[in-house]
Write a structure and sequence with these properties.
The chain is mostly helical and 140 residues long. It has 9 helices and no strands.
Length: 140
């Protein structure tokens, strides 16, 4: 059995803790919703093939979260300004979403600790400048 699957639960738990701290949230549920919102916001801009390539760079549980409940019949939408993307993240379960300003960057910082960054960045480069900018931890 691949190590990625053997360690899936503990890796996910550590990621949620890192993301919670990066987002300055208090609960795992709040953090999960923000991470899911970030993933869905990014995923909406990808074709199915692009999304599956991106998902393949993620740890097992995050990979499942990224592709879960994806309506692949909906065509990709255009990227938008960071403020609009952050608002989209906060729109998931709006009444139960505690996404702070800068959620995408905070999740990106946490996520980069759990992926092979070289492989992750190589994949993003194939998806274009806007995908690279989405997952950048640098301020605009």
């Amino acid at each position: 059995m691949p190590n990625d699957y053997q360690r899936a639960g503990p890796v996910f738990e550590r990621f949620i803790e890192e993301a919670r701290d990066a987002l300055d949230l208090t609960t795992r549920n709040q953090t999960y919703t923000v991470v899911e919102g970030v993933f869905r916001t990014f995923r909406r801009r990808l074709s199915v093939e692009e999304g599956l390539r991106f998902a393949d760079t993620l740890p097992a549980v995050l990979r499942a979260l990224f592709v879960g409940e994806w309506d692949i019949s909906v065509p990709p939408v255009a990227y938008a300004e960071r403020k609009v993307l952050d608002e989209e993240v906060a729109g998931l379960r709006r009444h139960h979403n505690f996404a702070p300003h800068g959620s995408i960057r905070a999740v990106a910082r946490a996520l980069r600790r759990f992926v092979d960054e070289k492989r992750f960045d190589q994949c993003l480069a194939t998806l274009g400048e806007e995908a690279c900018a989405f997952w950048s931890v640098e301020a605009d």
